[in-house]
Amino acid sequence: AVVLRHFALTYETVIFAALTDVVGQAPFRHMVTPGGFQMSAAMTSCGGFGWLADRTGYRYNTTDPQTGLPWPPLPDALLRLGIEAATAAGYPSFVPDACLINRYAVGAKMSLHQDKDEPDLGAPIVSVSLGLPANFQFGGLRREDKPLRVQLTHGDVVVWGGPARLYFHGVLPIKDGVHPLTGAFRINLTFRKVSK
Questions:
Q1: Of 41, 133, 186, 188, which has the most beta carbons under 10 Å away?
Q2: CB 153 within 8 A of CB 133
Q3: CATH 3.50.50.60 assigned to 2-192
Q4: What pTM was computed for the model?
Q5: pLDDT tens-digit profile of 73-124?
Q6: 3-state SS assignment for residue 51
Q7: What three-state secondary structure class fits 32?
Q8: How far is CA 155 from each of CA 9, 11, 32, 152, 186, rounded to the nearest angstrom?
Q9: Residues 129, 153: contact at Cβ < 8 Å?
Q10: Domain ranges, ordered by start, for the chain
Q11: What is the enclosing helix (H) or strand (E) of 152?
Q12: DSSP, res 162
């Protein structure tokens, strides 16, 4: 696992232009877990696949159930960011086909979990932090393993794969604040390889 401090700052303008376009087609929404709980982070997706959670489980799908349309294409600027961050972290063959976009309001969090819905676990995860800072938790292969706590700020990118690919990770509640570009929110982009 590698933290690339401020790696995404050079992409800042194109990232926010791309996000405006994506969210205009596939708005943020709060999904419901199989246990019936509403997730505190709002989500959307772009690329060939989007990630879904509902009472039937967690999965990827090629269409947005809210619109009935395919998810918006993965913008070239975001694709380039995902590839270049993975390459910088030692994964030069990574080409994502999905980008999950989470919006955290103040107080929102993400419980410790594994990213294991992808068929190819050899591909890394590339996670881009924007806006308000977050305390990222990065544990081990067991939920009870004590996690490291890493503060991520605007423009930081975390890449993990190989032996760390299935490590539990999460985000502690976002603290109160205002960022000049995102207001009272943290935005997280997570690039994945979903197709085999």
A1: 186
A2: yes
A3: no
A4: 0.95
A5: 999 999 999 999 999 999 999 999 999 999 999 999 999 999 999 998 999 9
A6: strand
A7: strand
A8: 5, 9, 29, 8, 11
A9: yes
A10: 2-192
A11: strand 148-152
A12: G
